[in-house]
Amino acid sequence: MNPQTKEQALDLISRLSEEFNLGLDDIGARLTKDAAHQKGEKWLPRVLGYLGAAFIFCGLALFISMKWDDLNSPARVIITYGPGLMAFVLGIITLKDERFIRASTPLFLKSALLLPTGMFVYLQEYAEGDDSQLAALIVFGLLAMQFIATFKVFPRTSLLFFGFLFWNASVGILMDRANVPGDALGIGLGLSIMATAWSMDTTVHRPIAPFFYFLGSVGLLWSVFDAVEGTPADVGFLAAAVGMMFLSVRMHSRTLLIVSTFSLLGYLGYFTGEYFADTIGWPVALMLMGFMLIAISYWAVKLGRQIKAAQIHA
Amino acid sequence: MKHFFKENFVLVAGITLPLALALVFFIATRVSVMGVEKPTTAVIFTTGYYQRTAGYNFQVENGQLTFSYSNPAQDYNQEKPRLFIYEPDKDASREIELPSLDTKEGSSAIIEETGQNIDTKEQSPDGFTFEAAYSSGRSNIMTDIFGGGSRYRDNCVLRKGGYRHDVPQARDYSCRFIGWYTE
Q: Is any Cβ of chain B less than 8 angstroms from the Cβ of A128?
């Protein structure tokens, strides 16, 4: 029976995948291969298109910088904020037409670069005071609201990506202004980014989850290390890194596995250098570290296989 | 709503964690400075001043402030610093105009406006110190990316224990304390 509706098509795919033991990766790989084959001959116009867009953007930036001193305040705001706003509006318009929907991501990218620039220029030209951090809080807070509110109406991944980046920028500044110490800020924000990325990972927006896993985990482990470095509690970092390794399996994330593995290797280097350098045990410690590195890399590969297997069966 | 929170517990926890941390530290900071009196003594400070052996210099002797330019032979290409007086009762910083000095031969001039009323003790009569506000602890990759440049937020403040009082016009990494203005 040929499926007539989307639901029926999904049912058929589900039945076939069970029958032939196909995972998401197998289906995704085939779809990507087919898409790549179909688009193989279209790569040149696409590359030229991107190059053209980059030239236009560079030309605009160069023109603005050349004429900057001759422009008055309203002109400076209009020439920076204006193209950003137009790109954002055009991005939304393209979402309403299936033919141009792929143009929305570069347009939102352009608006994400130009809108904050224009807003900072506005504050520089018209606002009084010398608190640049407060200016950044206002700009990133407003942009987070703008992108996330638009995402609620048009659930595009690119809108969520930029909205979440702006959200983190504004929350980070808010925490700093609330006198949260640097280490606690890093740990809190790192955990927050990882938790949100975990939630993204279970939705259609999962392509951006690895980027936020990477950002959150690097920030978290870096901050934990800063907090314990040179104190008797520095062995606690080992627990954090190993914990992150186990979490990578639970989250089915190889990004987390890579970050935690490298952090563990780096920590072992720090630990041996801190406690065994310039002693007779240093060469022995180096050899021990070598064995540990081999063991960790073997373990990481094993965990990576488990994650892949879990992703296939998901 | 309850169902939403149950279904999206990780997301809700992730979003609220940094906000809760900010709220806790904000309240803790407020509580720790409750009951501290605001500063009353005016302070004189400078920006764009690097306390080098050559170029522009400030000296305070017997409560009198002198502005000088020395060692011109070293051909220092140094910008002229700026001098401010912060008056807590007005909560405003006013710039004191510095005299023009001979940067070829070297010269000095007394700042008449401040008279002989400058006290260079580290602590003001009402118990405040003038210092850079490195209150956010050490910076790290997260504060550098998302902290809005807290590492460089080294504006000078009047501090008494945990209480910080922002000084206008002192949001500059080169701000330096000259003395308390005790009229």
A: no
The two three-digit tokens of residue B108, written as one number: 């000095």
Residue B11: inside a domain, yes or no? Answer: yes
Q: How far apart are CA A207 and CA A196, in angstroms?
A: 13
Residues B26 and B69 in one domain: no
Is residue B59 a part of any domain in this protein?
A: yes
Q: What integer pLDDT is reported at residue B136 of this predicted model?
A: 47
Using a CB–CB cutoff of 8 Å, tell me whether A131 touches chain B: yes
Separation of alpha carbons B102 and B91, rounded Å: 34
At position A240, the amino acid (one-letter code) is A
Q: Does A65 touch chain B (CB under 8 A)?
A: no
- The answer, yes or no, to whether residue B135 has pLDDT greater than 60, is no
Look over chain B and give the mean of its residue pLDDT values, rounded to a whole number: 82
Number of structural domains found in chain B: 2
A137 — contact with chain B (CB < 8 Å)?
A: yes
Q: Which residues of chain A have a CB within 8 Å of the CB of B157?
A: none
Q: What is the pLDDT of residues A272-299, one digit of tens each?
A: 777 776 666 777 777 777 787 788 777 7
The answer to whether B149 contacts A223, with C-beta atoms less than 8 Å apart, is: no
3-state secondary structure of B137: coil
Q: Determine the structural domain holding residue B9 and report its residue range.
A: 2-32
Does residue B79 sit in the same domain as residue B136? yes
